[in-house]
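Hey, I'm writing a tutorial for new members on how sequence and structure tokens pair up, and I'd like a real worked example in the thread rather than a made-up one. If someone can provide the structure for the chain below, I'll link this post from the tutorial.
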Amino acid sequence: MGVANFAIIWGLNIIGISPGTIFAGVSIITMVISFSAESLIADVVTGVFLLFDNIYNVDDIIEIGGYRGTVVKIGIRTTSIKDTGGIYK
């Protein structure tokens, strides 16, 4: 693998393309993707902990942010609850 990387960098230098510029661009793109995925990763990790810790289960009555209802479905990123009027949140 190291020889292939060296050959690619050497070939780019021969045709006049600076590998440093490509590496800098890829680094910036990687940072943008990682910062935008940060909240998704945090939600998934929190959802996994909720599922494994059994903090609440389906058919439990819970109150979150002033909203009270019965848990209908628990997912990795979301929990669906239904209030007494049958409205899902």
